[in-house]
Amino acid sequence: MKTIYDFGSNNGDDIPYYLLKSDKVISIEANPALCEFIRGRFKEEILKGRLIVENCAITESCDGNVDFYLHDKYHVRSTLVAPGEEPDEGGFTEKDFTRINIKAISVGSLIKRYGKPYYAKIDVEGYDENLLNAFVLNQIIPPYISVESHTIGVFALLSEKLGYKSFKLVDGQSVGSIYNRSIFHSPVLDKQVLYSFPHHSAGPFGNDIHGEWMDKKTLLKVLAIQGLGWKDIHASAADQPTLSF
Question: In the predicted model, what is the mean pLDDT of residues 14-36?
């Protein structure tokens, strides 16, 4: 059985694609209102047992309850990391957030409950590197994984600690245009599918991403040129790198 973990589902825009690519999707979202939206949007898939929605904060090692900070205007900026009095990189301070207390589940506990991931998407505002470190601590190495690349530490964990050797980059700003009317194979439907990714979605993974798999030296050179930011680093344990320079 292929299981996809969507760490940071937001409004669920990635879920339709994941349902076409796997037997089961585990959606993890801390915002209660967004979880209710996802449950309403995917009622049928939930009833069939193909989608499980966990309304919780996903943490590196904590099981219990934690404070979570809902952004008052932009739900994509909600975070587990306590905002400060000084503006963050987006210009927001603690006054722009509402604190709530919610259930927390650690990465290790969640994967023990639902099984090993075929693909894990990690997009948790300000906490991506922490979650990836939990994969290191638990030695969870999915065939495919992606993490937003705001820090070079993400690449170091993927390549040095988890041992991934094959990489691709997906530029968040251009997903909606590059992967508009994209064609890929759905193992669930056993046929080619025409699909358009929404603007704020994470986009495709694995071999649905355009281009060759890069080795780590090549990816480092590309990151040095393009910089970090709104880009997802995709890593594969199932494919060999074919691009090196």
Answer: 98
| pLDDT above 90 (res 31) | yes
Q: pLDDT tens-digit profile of 56-93?
A: 999 998 889 999 999 988 888 888 888 876 666 667 88
- Among all chains, which residue has been given the structure tokens 């906490």? 127
44 contacts: CB under 8 Å, gap ≥ 6: none
| Region 209-232 average pLDDT | 90
DSSP state of 209: S
Which is more confidently placed, 120 or 150?
120
Q: What DSSP letter does each residue of 45-105 carry, written as one string?
A: HHHTTSEEEEESEEESS--EEEEEEEESS-GGG-BSSPP-SS--TTS--GGGEEEEEEEEE
Lookup result for tokens 């919610």: 102
Rounded distance, CA 202 to CA 75, Å? 16
3-7 and 119-122 beta bridge pairing: parallel
Contact 83, 93 (CB under 8 A): yes
Question: Which tokens sit at 228?
Answer: 């970090």
Distance CA 74, CA 87 (A): 15
CA distance 75 to 96: 11
What is the C-alpha separation between 170 and 92, in angstroms, rounded? 26
**CATH class for the domain made up of 3-236:** alpha beta
57-59 and 191-195: which strand pairing? Answer: unpaired
CB 154 within 8 A of CB 165: no
Residue 103's DSSP bridge partners are 65
